[in-house]
Amino acid sequence: MKRERDIILIDEDKCNGCGLCVPNCPEGAIRIIEGKARLISDLFCDGLGACLGHCPRGAITIERRRAEPYDEKRVMGNVAKAGPAVIKAHLEHLASHNQTEYLAQAREYLQENKIVIDEIKGGTVNKNQCGCPGGREMVFGDKKAAGGDTASVKLGSELRQWPVQLQLLNPHAPYFKDADLVIVADCVPFAFADFHRRFLKDKTLIIFCPKLDQTIDQYVEKLTQLFTDNSVKSITLIHMEVPCCFGVEKIVQEALKASGKNIALKDYTISLQGEII
């Protein structure tokens, strides 16, 4: 019986059939058919978005609609055919998204079919091996401020406007006129300690998440309108190193192309340890 749930949506007009999404869907839900990526069955798509960030044209998003329930046992039948490496990737994909119920069903399938995977230890999967990098749990340890245990200088905010979330922004707001924009993935300011001084000073801020936000098409449309109707001077684009975060760049580039504007753009990638790559 169909129920409402998250599931991928492939825009066939944007898809060029490159196939980069296929190996990044361990469930085997995507195939290239007649030159286009297709979702072959609702039953195989868990809606967690392992394929997001791997499409160079931004053709894959997540939508919420009525669909057949995801079937982990049938998925494992697909995954097992591809061998231990793909099985491992699938299990860690589930673990990194805390899908304990699906993970238990996957283990049952392996036990029932007498498939032994070394990475399953004590009934759990080591989440820190691979899987979806954007959802992986990590601890970086204590970091001391340079020059001592406590910071001696009180830092001030460089934020010039509110709101900052793209979904809430008005593309005709006065602070976009002749603006230097900094367009940032949500996680960047938490990872990069010197964000305000290094990137935000004298700039207008826009933030969004290309993986978790469910309004990607609207974001392209809003940014297109913003670029078209304002004399934006420059764009500083900043995202994390995880694959799904590169969707920020795709969305901005798509909006720039649609606007017909040629705006100077600098692109920065931040590592998970908070360094500029």
Structure description:
It is a single chain. The chain has 277 residues and is of the alpha/beta class. It has 2 domains: 3-135, Alpha-Beta Plaits, CATH 3.30.70.20; 166-270, Dna Topoisomerase Vi A Subunit, Chain: A, domain 2 (3-Layer(aba) Sandwich), CATH 3.40.1360. Helices cover 26% and strands 19% of the residues. It has 7 helices and 10 strands. It has helices at 72-81, 84-96, 100-112, 188-191, 195-200, 216-229, 247-259; strands at residues 3-10, 30-33, 36-39, 60-67, 120-121, 124-125, 180-185, 204-208, 234-240, 264-270. A 4-stranded parallel sheet has the order 8-7-9-10. A two-stranded antiparallel sheet has the order 1-4. It has a two-stranded antiparallel sheet with strand order 2-3. A hairpin with a 2-residue loop joins strand 5 (120-121) and strand 6 (124-125). Helix 1 packs across helix 3 (100-112) and helix 6 crosses helix 7 (247-259). The longest helix has 14 residues, at 216-229. It is elongated and about 65 Å long. Residues 120-131 have low confidence and may be disordered.
